[in-house]
Specification:
The structure holds two protein chains of two kinds. Chain A has helices spanning 14-35, 54-68, 72-87, 118-122, 148-168, 176-184, 219-228, 248-251; strands at 46-51, 90-96, 126-127, 130-131, 171-175, 193-200. Chain A is an alpha+beta fold. Chain A has a single domain (14-211), classed as 3-Layer(aba) Sandwich (NADH Oxidase). In chain A, a hairpin with a 2-residue loop joins strand 3 and strand 4 (130-131). Chain B is α/β, with parallel strands linked by helices. Among the domains of chain B are: 95-175 and 503-562, Fumarate Reductase Iron-sulfur Protein, Chain B, domain 2 (Orthogonal Bundle), CATH 1.10.1060; 186-279 and 428-488, FAD/NAD(P)-binding domain (3-Layer(bba) Sandwich), CATH 3.50.50; 283-422, FAD/NAD(P)-binding domain (3-Layer(bba) Sandwich). Chain B contains 30 helices and 23 strands. The radius of gyration of chain B is 31 Å and the shape is globular. Classes of the chains: A alpha+beta, B alpha/beta.
C-alpha cells in the first residue's frame, strides 16, 4: 500500500497547488537552460533533478537539520536554509558528474595539488587514470578533492538556470546546503557536487531577507504560532453565539 | 555616403554591451557571498599585446602546441574582451587585513599566536613591515575598527595587543636572511622616519640597490625618535629595529641636511626618495602666539626627546586634540607640570586622538576642554597668564582646509596657564631648491600609484606626501615608493618577502587548551597600565601588555574571516583551516605566484562555482543582445601573466563581438601563417591536446606514464592505445610555460606594470622537470 499522509493544516491548498505546479514547469525550463550553458571542452557532465512535493521537500529539510548539528560551522546555515527548502515551491537540483571521477586533465593547477591533476588521482583508487568510484564511503560533507574546473563548470549550469528563472519572473536562489543534503539522500546520485535551487512564486520572497533566528522566526512558523494561540486572540470557532455584537471595533 | 560609418558605430556599441555584461556579472545571484568579482575590459591596441604573447607560445611548438593554437583560434580577434575573475583561493580577504595600509596578514599571525608560534607570528608581520616592534607598540590599529567580531558581536579582537604580545615574547629571532645581489645602482633617501627606513630596507635587501639615508637630526628614526614619546615607544625597541635595517647594508648619515637634489644626482645616485616627514609644527595667527613662551608641538617634543633641557610652567595648556597634542600634554606632566589642560575644537566624541591615548591621558591627570576655540593668548608683564577661549557650537573645514567655526555668543572664558603649547597640526618643510611641486599644506604632489614627483628620478613618501598620518601609513607609502623606485631602476618592482616558515596544523592548539582552562565566553582583555604615579615619574612604557594566557584566549575570539569556514572537504582538506594553511604555504613556496599550467590554485570549490554563476550571467547578457560570444579560459591565462586582473586566481575571458575563426584567418590580419590547413599539413593536429590528455591518466609526475594514441586518432583503429614512458613530455610543457611568462613580462615592462619574478618562476619550473 502506498504511504498516505494526512495532516490537519495542509499548506498545499488547491490554490497553493496551482501555483506550485507552475513552478515545476519553470524548473523544467531552467533545467534545459542549464544544459545549454557553456561547457568546459564541450563535454557532457550535467545532471539534474526536480524535487516537488511536501514530503520530498520535508525530507530534504530534515536532512539539512540533521546535518546542522554535526558541526558548529554548519549549524547556522543549515538551519536557516532548511526553512527555505521547506518553503520552496519547487527545488531544482543540479550536479556535475565528472568532478569526482573524471578530472579535466587540463593541468590547470586550480586544485591544491601539483598542476598535473595528480592531487585528484592520488586521492582515489585508480588504474592508468581510470578512477574507481565504487567507494561510496565519506567522512566529509563533500568527498573531495574535486576537479575544480568542473566544479566551476557547475557554476555555469546554475547560472544559466537562474537566468531562465529571471526571464520567467519566478524567484530562485542557489543553495549549497540544499544540494548537499539532497545528495546525501541520493538525489543526483552520479554527481560529485550538487547545488539546489529553491524556486518560489510568491509575492513575498522570504529567503532574500530572512529574519534573525530564521529557523524559528519565519512566516510559516509565525502563522502556525498564531493558529496555536487562536483562543488567546479572541477568535473562537464558529459555534454558539454570533461574534458581531461583541466586535471590539464597534464598542470603540 | 552615410553620416556615420555603420560598422564602426556597431563596434563602438560593443563597449556598451560589455558594460551590460559587467552589470549582469555583478548582479548574478551569490552562492556563499564570499567571492569578490573583478572585471577588466580590453579593446584596441591591448589586444595586439595578447596575440604577441600567444605567438610565443605557438612558435615554441611544445607537444601541447595545439592547445594554445586552439585558444587563439577559437577566440579569433573580437573587438572587445571582458575579463571576469576572482580570487577563489581558500583564503578570503579578511576585513582586518584589508584595513591595514601595509596589508599585514592579520588572521594568519593571530592563528600563529594561538598555536604558540610567536616567532612565526612576528615573521608574518615582518613580511610587510620591516619595523614590526615599532608597529606593535604605536600602530593606531585601523584593523580593529574593521574587525567583524566588533561589528557583529561584541568587541573587536585586541589585535594590537596581540601583536605587541608576539614581539615581546618572540624570543631571539634570526634576521639573517640573505640580501639580494647588488645591482650597482644607488638610491639616496632623505629622512630616516618610517617611510624612509621601510623603503631603504626593501631597496637594499630585496632589490639589491645601494642605499644611503640622509638624516638632518643627530639620531635616526625621524618622527619615531623625536615625535613619539618613549613611554609609548621604548627607545631600545626602536634602536634594535634600526640596527636590523642597518645590518642589511643600509648606510645612515645623521646630522646631514640635504639642500640640493641635483648635488645628490651629481654624487652618482640614480634615484632619490624624499621622505622628510612633517616636522614643522603650526601656530594659530592669534594675538600673543608669537610670544617666546608659546611652544610648538614638534619643537617641544623634539627637544625633549633629543635630551635638551626643556622647562614648562606649573600650569600648561595644550591647544589641539590629536595624538600629538596628547603626547605634548603627557610629556608636560612628566616634565613637572602640576596641571595640564587641553582645549580643542572637536567635541569629546570626535576628538581625532586615539581613544586609548585619551583614556591614559585622563588617568595621568590631563583635563580636556572639548568644543573650544581660542581668541588670544593673554600676556601680563611679559608672562603668559592664560588663553581667552570661546565655546564652539559647530565647525567645518572649507575647501582650503581652514576651519570655519560657529561659536556660542557670550561664552568667552579664560583658561589660565603659564605655558601654552600649540599642537594643531604639522606640515613638511620642503626646501625650495628641491624644486618639487607642492600642494595644500606644503605636501609634495606625487603620482598616487608610483609616488613619482614632478622631477625625473625623484620619488616622495611618508608624511611629506600624505600629510600627518600614522607610522603604518608611512610604512605603506615607503613600500609603494620602494617598488616604484625598483621598477624605475630596471628591477621587478617586487618587494614581497616570505619570512615565515611553512605552517603546520598543530595536534593540540595552545589557545584551545588555554580556553578550556579559563572556560566560559571570553571577553576582550584590558591591557594593563603602569600606575599613574609611576608613569609620571619618568618615561617608562605605560602599556604593560597581555600575559600569555590572556593572549592565547584572545586568539580564540577571532572569527577567522579569512576562511570560508564551511569545512566541507570538497577541496580535499578536512577543514578550511587546513586549506588556508596549504594555500599560504604554497604562496610562500612560489614567492606569491602559485602558477599552475593555466591558473593559480588551490581553490575553494564553492568560490569557483560562485564565480561560474557570474561568468555565465555575463555571457547570457551578451546573448540577450544577439551578439556573438563565448567563454575562453586559456587566453585568460596569458592575460593574467601579462599583469591583467591582478589578485585573481581564476580568470575567464568573454570575447564580445564576432569571435569565430573566420575572423582569425581573414586575409590581411597578419596571422595567415596559422591557417588550419597549414596546421594540419604540419601534423600539429596530431597533438590535439584534449584527446592526448584525456588518456594521460595519473598525470606526468606520477611515474611519467601515459597512454598515447600513436596514430591519427580519427583513423581506424580508433581504439589503438599504447602505454608509453615519456620523461620529456612534461619538460616541453614547462619550457613553453616559461616562454609565456617571459613574453608576458615584456608586456608588463612595456605597460609599466609590476613585473614577474622570472628567476623565481624559472627556479620553480626547473624544479619540476624530470631528472
Amino acid at each position: 500500500m502506498p504511504r498516505i499522509t494526512i495532516r490537519d493544516w495542509p499548506p498545499y491548498s488547491p490554490t497553493d497547488q496551482n501555483r506550485r505546479e507552475n513552478t515545476v514547469l519553470a524548473a523544467k525550463l531552467m533545467m534545459n537552460g542549464s544544459l545549454t550553458a557553456p561547457s568546459v571542452g564541450g563535454v557532457a557532465m550535467t545532471e539534474g533533478e526536480i524535487v516537488y512535493g511536501e514530503e520530498e521537500q520535508e525530507q530534504i529539510a530534515r536532512k539539512m537539520e540533521e546535518l546542522a548539528y554535526e558541526r558548529e560551522a554548519w549549524q547556522h546555515i543549515f538551519l536557516y536554509e532548511a526553512v527555505m527548502a521547506r518553503q520552496a515551491d519547487t527545488i531544482l537540483l543540479l550536479g556535475n558528474t565528472r568532478a569526482y571521477s573524471s578530472p579535466w586533465n587540463g593541468e590547470c593547477g586550480l586544485c591544491a595539488g601539483r598542476p598535473d591533476c595528480s592531487f585528484v588521482y592520488e586521492n582515489r583508487n585508480q588504474t592508468a587514470g581510470i578512477i574507481d568510484d565504487t567507494d561510496r564511503r565519506f567522512d566529509t560533507l563533500v568527498k573531495g578533492p574535486l576537479c575544480t574546473i568542473y566544479a566551476h563548470q557547475l557554476g555555469y549550469n546554475v547560472g544559466s538556470a537562474l537566468m531562465v528563472a529571471t526571464h520567467l519572473y519566478v524567484d530562485a536562489r542557489p543553495f549549497m546546503s540544499i544540494g548537499l543534503a539532497a545528495q546525501k539522500l541520493d538525489y543526483c546520485r552520479n554527481s560529485a557536487l550538487v547545488i539546489g535551487i529553491a524556486i518560489n512564486a510568491r509575492a513575498k520572497c522570504e529567503p532574500s531577507d530572512p529574519a534573525v533566528d530564521y529557523h524559528l522566526v519565519n512566516l510559516d512558523r509565525a502563522i502556525d504560532a498564531i493558529r496555536g494561540n487562536v483562543n488567546q486572540l479572541g477568535v473562537r470557532p464558529a459555534s454558539g453565539k454570533e461574534y458581531r455584537p461583541g466586535d471590539p471595533a464597534k464598542k470603540r | 555616403m552615410p553620416l556615420y560609418d555603420g560598422k564602426k558605430f556597431a563596434q563602438e556599441g560593443l563597449l556598451q554591451v560589455a558594460q551590460h555584461c559587467a552589470q549582469a556579472a555583478l548582479h548574478a545571484p551569490q552562492l556563499i557571498g564570499k567571492t569578490e568579482i573583478k572585471m577588466e575590459v580590453l579593446a584596441g591596441e591591448e589586444l595586439k599585446d595578447y596575440f604577441s604573447v600567444q605567438d610565443v607560445a605557438n612558435k615554441l611548438g611544445g607537444r601541447l602546441g595545439g592547445e594554445t593554437y586552439k585558444a587563439a583560434y577559437g577566440m579569433g580577434e573580437p573587438p572587445v574582451l571582458l575579463l571576469i575573475g576572482a580570487d577563489v583561493t581558500p583564503i578570503v580577504e579578511a576585513p582586518c587585513r584589508a584595513a591595514c595600509p601595509a596589508g599585514i596578514d592579520v588572521p594568519r599571525y593571530i592563528r600563529l599566536i594561538g598555536d604558540g608560534k610567536y616567532e612565526q607570528a612576528v615573521s608574518v608581520v615582518r613580511e610587510k613591515v620591516p619595523l614590526p616592534s615599532v608597529c606593535a607598540y604605536v600602530c593606531h590599529a585601523p584593523c580593529e575598527t574593521k574587525c567583524r567580531r566588533g561589528i557583529l558581536r561584541d568587541q573587536p579582537i585586541a589585535i594590537e595587543a596581540l601583536k605587541r604580545f608576539a614581539v615581546d615574547h618572540a624570543g631571539k629571532m634570526d634576521f639573517s636572511e640573505p640580501t639580494a645581489e647588488a645591482t650597482g645602482k644607488r638610491v639616496a633617501i632623505i629622512g630616516s622616519g618610517p617611510a624612509g627606513m621601510t623603503a631603504a630596507y626593501y631597496l637594499k635587501k630585496v632589490c639589491g640597490h645601494g642605499v644611503t639615508i640622509f638624516e638632518a637630526l643627530p639620531q635616526p628614526g625621524g618622527m619615531m625618535r623625536v615625535g613619539i614619546p618613549e613611554y609609548r615607544l621604548p627607545r631600545d625597541v626602536l634602536d634594535r629595529e634600526i640596527k636590523e635595517i642597518k645590518s642589511k647594508g643600509v648606510e645612515i648619515r645623521t646630522d646631514t641636511r640635504v639642500d640640493s637634489l641635483d648635488a645628490l644626482f651629481e654624487e652618482g645616485y640614480s634615484a632619490i626618495l624624499v621622505a622628510v616627514g612633517a616636522h614643522e609644527g603650526q601656530k594659530l595667527p592669534i594675538p600673543g602666539a608669537d610670544h617666546d613662551g608659546v611652544l610648538v608641538s614638534m619643537d617641544f617634543l623634539r627637544d625633549v626627546h633629543l635630551g635638551k633641557e626643556v622647562k614648562v610652567g606649573k600650569r600648561v595648556l595644550v591647544l589641539g586634540g590629536g595624538d600629538v597634542a596628547f603626547d605634548c600634554a603627557r610629556v608636560a606632566r612628566r616634565l613637572g607640570a602640576d596641571e595640564v589642560h587641553m582645549a580643542c575644537l572637536e567635541s569629546r566624541k570626535s576628538m581625532p586622538a586615539d581613544s586609548d591615548g585619551i583614556k591614559q591621558g585622563e588617568v595621568e591627570g590631563v583635563v580636556i576642554h572639548p568644543s573650544t576655540t581660542f581668541a588670544r593668548i593673554l600676556i601680563k608683564k611679559g608672562h603668559i597668564t592664560g588663553v581667552e577661549c570661546i565655546e564652539v557650537k559647530s565647525f567645518e573645514f572649507d575647501e582650503d582646509g581652514n576651519a570655519q567655526v560657529d561659536v556660542i555668543e557670550g561664552s568667552e572664558h579664560i583658561l589660565s596657564a603659564d605655558t601654552v603649547i600649540f599642537a594643531i597640526g604639522q606640515r613638511p618643510e620642503i626646501p625650495a631648491q628641491f624644486d618639487l611641486t607642492t600642494g595644500h599644506g606644503s605636501i609634495i604632489e606625487v603620482d598616487p600609484d608610483t609616488f613619482d614627483t614632478n622631477r625625473d628620478g625623484v620619488f616622495a613618501a611618508g608624511d611629506a606626501v600624505i600629510g600627518t598620518s600614522s607610522v603604518i601609513e608611512a610604512v605603506a607609502s615607503g613600500r609603494k615608493a620602494a617598488s616604484s623606485i625598483d621598477l624605475y631602476l630596471g628591477g621587478l618592482g617586487n618587494i614581497d618577502e616570505v619570512l615565515a616558515p611553512p605552517e603546520q596544523v598543530p595536534d593540540v592548539s595552545p589557545a584551545q587548551a588555554a580556553l578550556r582552562q579559563v572556560g566560559g565566553d571570553p571577553q576582550r582583555p584590558q591591557t594593563g597600565l603602569l600606575p599613574a604615579e609611576q608613569a609620571l615619574a619618568g618615561f617608562e612604557k605605560v602599556e604593560l601588555g597581555l600575559n600569555e594566557q590572556e593572549a592565547l584566549v584572545e586568539t580564540t575570539r577571532c572569527l577567522k574571516c579569512d576562511q570560508v569556514g564551511f569545512d566541507c572537504g570538497a577541496c580535499g582538506f578536512q577543514t578550511c583551516r587546513e586549506a588556508v594553511i596549504n594555500c599560504q604555504n604554497r604562496l610562500n613556496e612560489t614567492g606569491g605566484e602559485p602558477w599552475g599550467w593555466l591558473m593559480k590554485g588551490p581553490s575553494c570549490i564553492w568560490r569557483t562555482v560562485e564565480l561560474g554563476i557570474s561568468v555565465d550571467w555575463a555571457t547570457a547578457a551578451v546573448h540577450r543582445h544577439n551578439i556573438e560570444s563565448r567563454i575562453a579560459m586559456i587566453p585568460a591565462t596569458a592575460l593574467m601573466r601579462m599583469g591583467y586582473m591582478e589578485g585573481c586566481t581564476l580568470v575567464l575571458v568573454v570575447p564580445i563581438g564576432p569571435c569565430k575563426e573566420r575572423w582569425y584567418f581573414e586575409p590581411g590580419t597578419g596571422r595567415e601563417d596559422y591557417r588550419s590547413a597549414e596546421m594540419e599539413r604540419r601534423g600539429v593536429m596530431l597533438q590535439y591536446p584534449p584527446l592526448w590528455m584525456r588518456f594521460t591518466g595519473p598525470g606526468r609526475d606520477m611515474g611519467r606514464r601515459g597512454i598515447n594514441t600513436k596514430d591519427r586518432w580519427w583513423d581506424p583503429p580508433y581504439t589503438r592505445l599504447e602505454i608509453i614512458e615519456d620523461d620529456k613530455w612534461g619538460d616541453s610543457v614547462l619550457d613553453r610555460d616559461y616562454a609565456i611568462f617571459a613574453a608576458a613580462d615584456e608586456i608588463r615592462k612595456k605597460r609599466k606594470r609590476k613585473r614577474l619574478n622570472l628567476p623565481k618562476i624559472k627556479e620553480t619550473l626547473d624544479a619540476k622537470k624530470s631528472g
